[in-house]
Specification:
The protein is 63% helix and 6% strand. The chain is mostly helical. It comes from Skeletonema marinoi.
Length: 1237
Amino acid sequence: MKKWTVGAIVSLRSRGTQHVDKIVCSHEYLSCALKIAHSLAKQLSTVEQERAPHTEKSNTNNSPPMIEASDKSWSEYIYISCMTKEAVEKDMKDESSTHNSNNDDKLDPGELHNLSQQLSTLLENDNNQNSIDYLDVRGAILNEGAVDGRSLSNDGKLEIRSLGWEGDELLGHNPTKRRSLQSSTNLDSLSQVQSPSMVSTSVEPLKLLGLPTALCNLISNTIDSVDGDAHDNGGTYGLISEVRDDLKLMIDSPNLYLQDVDLAKAVNVGLQFGGSLYGREAELQTLKECYQRSISSECEVAMICGTSGIGKSKLSQEFARSVNEDGGSIYLSGRFDKLESQPLHAISSAFDKYCAWVTAEDQSTAEKVSTALKENMGDEMACLVTVMPNLANILGDDFNLNPISKNDDTAVDAQKRIRYLFCQFVDVISRCHEEPLILFLDDCQWIDNASVALLNQILMMSGSAIKDHRFFFFGACRDDEMSESHPLNIMLTSMNCFGTKTTKIQLTSMSKDAVNEMVSTELSLLPRITRSLANILHHKTKGSPLFVKQVMMELYKQRLLYPSLSRRRWVWETNKILDMKIPDNVATFITNTFDRLSFEVVSALVVLSCFGASADISLIEVLEKEIEQPLIAPLDDAVAHSVLGKRNGKFYFMHDKLQEAAYSKMKPEERCLHHNRYGLALDLLHGGSGESEFRCWNKAMNMSDFFAAHSFFEHGISYLRLRREHWNEHYDLSLELFNLAAKCALMNAEHDSLKMLTDQIMHHARCFEDKFQAISVTIPLLSFSGNVPAAVELIKTTLSSLDEELPSAVTPTVIKKHLDNTKKQLALLSDDTLLSYLAMVDPSKIFAVELLVKLYGSLTLIGERATQRIIPLKVIQISLTYGMSPHSPTAFAQYGSYLALIEDEFEEGYRYVKFALSLMKKIPSRAHDSTTMFWSTHTRIHIEPMQSSIECYLDAYKAAMKSGNTYAVSSSSVYNNCCLWSGKELNAVVDSMKDTMKESKYHKNFVALTLMLPMLRVALRLIGQSDAPAPQQDNLTNAFGETFNEGNNAGKYASLLHTMYFAKLSEALIFRELNEAEDAAEKYFSVDRLVGLPPVMFFGKFYSGLVSFWVARETDDNKRKESNKWIKRGVECKDKMEKLSVSASTWNFENKLYLLQAEEQFCSRNFETAETLYDAAILSSKMHKFVNEEALANELAGHFYLETGRRNKSVHYFSRAFDKYNEWGAVAKASALTEYF
């Protein structure tokens, strides 16, 4: 072998390559070296098989030689078979020569003796060496003299290592440090001598030469086989046959298994899948045979069947490639789409693509087709142009494209005419080409009846045609979604009766070997290495190709499968992948994957899904401008996530399951609206008349697509404006259209448009009643912008016009009088009576109730507590007098909240809240459900377990979004704040807050934005992101340019200031900032008396009480009055919490009460009682699942023990607080605690 090595290097150097390192890394040298190594491995594996365990054979002349490691280098006994230069020249001339590059496969162990003698003579004859072609290697053997009579050592592992050493030496590296170890045959002694450091560095010189990583790893894994250490996914070799197989793969597929992975591309582009087919050889062969029969004599069709994602489309693509390589064909393909309502779309699009192709690529054939069509079909061809626009390019400019009269007698109806013309068209193009015509239709489970009829007629025609009329049809379908009565099944059954055979090719899950082939190919790793990963993937996906790809993509995204720069190949985290929770089916997996995409990306995918499997990028660009929604950039992001592909000017879903997942993000009742919306946007570009909007606006409103609906209305209004006197000539229509458009403008935050619309209504309204809806949408516009006092004034003025004025002076006596009167009236009526109460019919009273309900919310913001309390009482009295209005359920919910949270009548209040929800379901309209649910939840979170009851705010949000109610953002805002203070995981809370902020900003809801900002700041600081960019709370500008600040808005925005100060005092308490806590608490108490009924006032009572006791303890002894003030405040908060714990819910308030009591006893220096109460607070917090308050109670207990001189005991509580803050997600706060333990 040494002589061959020198000879090969000299030969390559004579060709111009001077540096030995470059020669060893060259393709020519590596190719020869691999052949030599493979020949040796093959010889050794033959011995391995013959000397397998439990098999005893005599050492006869027919037995293979017995091999073991020698005390000498194997290189002295390895003979390499090469051709002489004369033989090479003869071989090149004689194609029938028995010498070829694969001759090593024909070496028989019985021929080794003769061959070794020939090689010895050849190599020892210096005179012949110049005639040897060292680069035409035919094989290699171990000399019989070196191996004869010796048995395999210990399962052959020494031989594997020796083979690795020779490979190492063959590639120019001489591992002399190890050579002395070769003489030992005792594995135990070897393992003692050999050091791990030697193993890990065994092939480093080869890597430095630039040899392929896979080859270096192979040598390393053979050398390290004795120890069995796994330095690589795949580990060391256990059998020589494994080495043989890996070498064979490197020889046969060097581009796949020998070349290093392009790490730069892998890192920048990520995991990319090719177009190969795996494990479908038998099915592909069946399809080919069916095709050959069909184009020769018989009429036969094939149907590829299987579940979604099983590889039907991929099989069809591989078939098309194979047929094209075997001689070519005219391959047409189309795809049925579940969303496509146009009949014949899949078939017509397939032939339309043919028309475009033949015109661009084969002009002579296009002219031949044009001539034949005109001769056979004449002017009737114009009908086909309507379904195949590119046909016009074939027919030419001189062809009359005006369709023939519909009264023509040559066809009974339009469908029959189209079918007849299609058949003629197929007949013409199949005769104009020498190649067979193949039509493939995908997703045939969604085939329409017109296409079934057309396909049946085409197949019947081709079956009766002459021999040179060659046509083959095959399709793919999800047969699990097709019943026996499916139109396609009926057609195929009937065709069998007429002699057209159907071959069904059923695809099932891939085998483990097929999955391994797929993983191995896509990662460019040897199958032996990827088998462990492939087995895991097969187990988790049941062998579904799509599922395997999706899971691999998810592994890449989660960094469980990634390109390693140090190993220069793909690696994976086996244990983490094993522990990964994956749904049982690919549909659920894809849906879950979508949930991890950004809102913008998912929204863009939803839009794209409305156009089917693909859409032109130019169309999406136009649509993006018309609907004013980002599309192109988010779709490009989806391409980067491998959800979409981008090719030939189109965005397309990588699989129909992905399209279905995107489409499923729309509610079924909203899908029609989305189609109408996008269709309208495109229609407007082409000068639409506006009539379609009149047909669609009510459906759009009912389906909650306010963007589409507003487009309808705006276009309808523009249509009306063509008639200058439309308010006089079409008053009712104009009023309805302007009112609906105003509602949509409010939901879409188009405030300028809203103001214009309401001004028109107020100007042209013929009576006060006609102004109701304009006033109704103006109120939330004013509130959103922060001008709540103006909204309140508008409501009061309107109520006065409706003869429903509120008392000018609302005193406690007035409130009590109204409350007693309401209670007496309700006491006379059972719930069943109230649920069956007559409906309110007086429009003025209905509108008055609506205004009063809105006034209740507005007064909550500005702090008119007395007036706010009388409103639900007045609404109930109106309802009992005039009947139940759509807003009456909300009034009962507000009444229940008033009884429970103001009068402390929790049982009675909760009863009316539940009654409000029952009454809501009795009201036919769903427009105001969200308002009722919103106010009901204020009470429910006090009485029901908070962690579950706050989800009702989400229900209110969803109902508001569906109906277009303005409480959507308010519900989401309160929900987020409750999640923050009830201990929900902080990172999820922050994400939800940010989403709500975006929505608030989009809708220009200044109030909701202001309520959210302080809480978001606290949450960001808790999770350690306080340095992240965030708007400042103290200086905000609303939609009208007005500035919000603390100084001049105490009365105007009491609720907003209340929220802001609560956020500041709670933040200061948690981060132990005494001065800031005292200042914020002082301001909090100053506005607390102004606030009406904040939804989560108990959070403020709890935290302000804790701050009060803390400030009291830290106040100097000489300021006794100041200290007593704070203690009094703390006691008031504690007493409120005690009422809530006793009357409302032990679950929600017991732990808070214990902690306030503990702090009170700390202030009173009753340390023993305080200890008991701290522990009780901790235990109660844990039992009732308030992890944030468990953390806080542990921390305050720690400070208690620290300040009372028991530092060692404080460490225990601080340590537990640290753990619980981390569990909550408050990592920054947890980190700050480390100074205490």
